[in-house]
Write the structure tokens for this entry.
Amino acid sequence: MEPISMANGNWRAALPALAVFEAAARHLNFSRAARELGATQPAVSHQVGWLEAHLGCRLFHRRHRGVSLTPEGQILFEAAAATRAAVERARDDIRALSGQRPLTVATDYGFAGDWLIPRLGAFAAAAPATELRIVASQFLADPLADPADVAILMGTGAWPGRAAHLLFRETVSAVASPALLRVPAGPADLARMRLLHLEPRHPAPWLTWRGWFAAHGIDRPPRPGDATFDTYSLVQQAAIAGQGIALGWHPLIAGALETGRLACAAAPPVTTGLGYYLLENPARRPPGLAAFRDWLLAACRDSEAAGLSPPPPSRCS
């Protein structure tokens, strides 16, 4: 195949594949890139393969549990990411000229799907003039990189150059389908059961099963027979389906507890020094920021006052 060249115009034909490559390189996972793009994993793999064939080099190392960038892939990703950021800044500038710029909120899949999205109707009623754009990713390297205006992340609260507002302390219970917890199960009982893990990141910015068991004085590393998922929504779905025991973050599991889809095991929850924080860049004051911050902080206080974060001990121990 003829290599891509700026001179012969073939770069235009590569633009769709470059967009797919950028998403795959940002997530380092073809399946997550496919979900973002509304495509299938084979379609992402095909586009990346087409681009590799035309460039005459490998862009990814394919590994059993994912992919990593080759040196050539890293060079292309840096260019593609810079282009994406520039285009999105231009889009936002154009919208700003016509008063249409949305407030972009970056967060993880769990907080977006289980807490924020169910409450967006209330925000729309409170601030009808503010348009939100939600950007969700399991791993955010820079929480306030373009195109995000604000971010909601789990961490210690120490992000240099960012104003951090605590929303919830990290409080985690062992949860499962009520059918799986007909007999009360303490930490030692849970250690013998099938565990559902959230795909790890090192260092993990949240409590892992190993850390949860350590807080109860038990060493329980991952074992064959456990299951691992790349988003928290899949962990919850597997737990609701009775496939094992999951870690449940309060208040993300409040809805599932209220409806009886999940129940807490007979083990005390674990509270860590981490928490969900709203992060702002003091140098940026986009329209709608104050309205969103004030609404979010009030909604989090209301959740705690209602006993949804964490739930009462009778429901969680």
Summary: Residues 71-97 form the longest helix (27 residues).
